[in-house]
Amino acid sequence: MCPLLVSESKVALDDLPPVEGEAQLGAGFPFAEEFTIWTIRIISIRRETFYGFLEAPANEYIGLLPIKYQGRLVCPGGTFKGLFFSEELRFALANGYILLEIQRAFSFKRGVNCFLGLIEQLNNMKVEAQLNNQPTIRNIAKLLMNSMYGRFGMHPSLTNTSIWTEEQINSLTNGWDILSKIDFGELSLVTTILNKEWILENLGEEVLLKHLVNMGNDTNVAIASAVTAYSRMIINSYKLQALNLGLNIYYSDTDSLVLDGPLPPEVCDSARLGMLKLEHTFKEGIFVMPKVYYLEYKFLKLPGRTSYL
């Protein structure tokens, strides 16, 4: 079910063990609720009375509020506009951003602890597997924790594969195009794809929506967006902590930070979700783009030891 319309209104005004897993724990998740919000005021954002997604321009640059630009997430400076998750927007406002106006909003009901039991079980499995030297189980648990939310954000499949007779194939409407056909005697294995453009033009939006719902795609972009937003809030809170300590941030991505000094030990615990783990200490690094960098290490091998220091 999709959220209903919301109106326009203007107001003045180190490495992180599965961060996506932590983001799926106790925080709320958006579930569609059928009502219309006619007025959204900035006070409702600050008082946490609104939950959902808002389209709004914002000002300032701190690197906390991203927008999608040419297929990539960027944190622009100056005045910019985007569709933001309400909790991430509040986080940015609390740390210096200025919200200029709200143009559209999509309200959701807050669902609490949706994945709490599953994520805790997977994390315990990962920790125990690491202690018991079971790398396969550890990797499976970590993969499930980090990848589950992505299933909600997958592009819906518009294809359908069936075994049909020639008569059934000939009775296909213009709303379906044949992608492939493999003959098995009197039957054929046929893969078809929904012709969205033809249906929209000839049958209307309501019929197209009915077809899309019937395709059986169990996806929820709102949940996927909320999880990634919560994840950014977690890593960004560590960035702010580093800056407050006078540290320089040389690199950061979804679940890691490169700093020129240590963070407090109380935020480092590889067994707890959302906490940091010191992965490496290195002499020099060159950071080209996300996931592309060069690190220079200094290794020391001592006689009688099987590992490096």
From TrEMBL:
The reply to whether Nucleotidyltransferase figures as a keyword in the UniProt entry is yes
Keywords, A to Z, come to:
DNA replication, DNA-binding, DNA-directed DNA polymerase, Mitochondrion, Nucleotidyltransferase, Transferase
Instruction: State if Nucleotidyltransferase is listed as a keyword.
Output: yes
The record's section on InterPro entries has: DNA-dir_DNA_pol_B_CS, DNA-dir_DNA_pol_B_mt/vir, DNA/RNA_pol_sf, DNA_pol_palm_dom_sf
Pfam families, per this entry? DNA_pol_B_2
Top-level taxon: Eukaryota
Q: Which GO terms describe its molecular function?
A: DNA binding; DNA-directed DNA polymerase activity; nucleotide binding
Instruction: Report the EC code(s) recorded for this entry.
Output: 2.7.7.7
Domain named DNA-directed DNA polymerase family B mitochondria/virus: residues: 49-234
Q: Catalysed reaction(s)?
A: DNA(n) + a 2'-deoxyribonucleoside 5'-triphosphate = DNA(n+1) + diphosphate
Could you tell me the Gene Ontology terms of the biological process aspect for this record?
A: DNA replication
Q: What PANTHER family does the database record attribute to this sequence?
A: DNA POLYMERASE, DNA-DIRECTED DNA POLYMERASE
| Family recorded in the similarity comment | Belongs to the DNA polymerase type-B family.
The name under which this protein is listed is DNA-directed DNA polymerase
Q: Which organism is it from?
A: Rhizophagus irregularis
